Amino acid sequence: MSKIIGEQSIQFDNPPIIVGFSSVVGQKEGEGLLGQYFDKIIEDPMYGEENWELAESKFQKVASQLAINNAKLTINDIRYIFAGDLLSQLIATTFAFKDFQKPLFGLYGACSTMGESLQLAAMCVDGGFAPYTLAVTSSHYCSAEKQFRFPLEYGNQRPPTTTWTVTGSGAIVLGRQGKGPRVTYITPGKIMDYGIKDPMNMGACMAPAAADTIYQHFKDLKSKPEDYDLIATGDLGVVGKSLVKKMLLEKGYELKDNFTDCGIEIYSPTAQDTHAGGSGCACSAVTLTGYFLKKMLSGELKKILLVPTGALLSTVSSNEGESVPAIAHGVVIEY
């Protein structure tokens, strides 16, 4: 059986098994629509640390240890870690894993990092390079605002198109043996740039990348939207979700009720002021580990296509007037 499917996709001969997973979130996320599903809710945004960045590292570290514990393993069983975050030089990840003393692949896919880490961790397990791998990512509202937008003390007004960065971390342990949902196919995405320069409208910036990856996935696998119980993009919010539906309809694919976005699922649109929805690396990560995977274990979902999305901007590129390129990575999980 060929692992290479179509132009961009991969089929696994020995589909890696999700043997453990966890979700750790902040107070706002715990008060949202999915609060009852998360493994751990931290009310203190500083998580007992001296700054936002160290707090984010702690989210990642705790989520990783929980996932390993849930897999009934120890850190010594994990051969490679695939992890990343939104901060400069991946400092949340660096300080989270410096004491683990395990080989680390530091990844940056912006908010698509959960998809990227899952893809590479799965390839590593399927290829026989590791018995167990760990895929993890994080984001923090305060550290992201501080780096990409304005300091919290500034109190700037947010336009309706903006999204709220999810505070939290999601972690997944993949293995060659065990019980659990399996990663069966992946469709790595490519960079798409439609020339949008508004960093306050991430949904519009990322929608073309999400639509392109989903389209290529359908084309490579010769599948269609109804083949999945659920298709979920990462953090497009209400703006980006509607654009993806329109773009794919133009290509002959109609997304219906089985299509959602993690940024819409996580917060309450009426009770919480998050404007267009949720965003950040943790958005798709905790929605997957806290909600979707548990729905799979209960039998409510059998096959999902998760497409985490990422806006590939920086403070430098935005300040220099550049557009906001984006990327999206597709992962099929079956149980």
Automatic annotation (TrEMBL):
<dbReference type="InterPro" id="IPR016039">
    <property type="entry name" value="Thiolase-like"/>
</dbReference>
<protein>
    <submittedName>
        <fullName>Stage V sporulation protein AD</fullName>
    </submittedName>
</protein>
<dbReference type="InterPro" id="IPR038369">
    <property type="entry name" value="SpoVAD_sf"/>
</dbReference>
<dbReference type="GO" id="GO:0016746">
    <property type="term" value="F:acyltransferase activity"/>
</dbReference>
<dbReference type="Pfam" id="PF07451">
    <property type="entry name" value="SpoVAD"/>
</dbReference>
<dbReference type="InterPro" id="IPR010894">
    <property type="entry name" value="SpoVAD"/>
</dbReference>
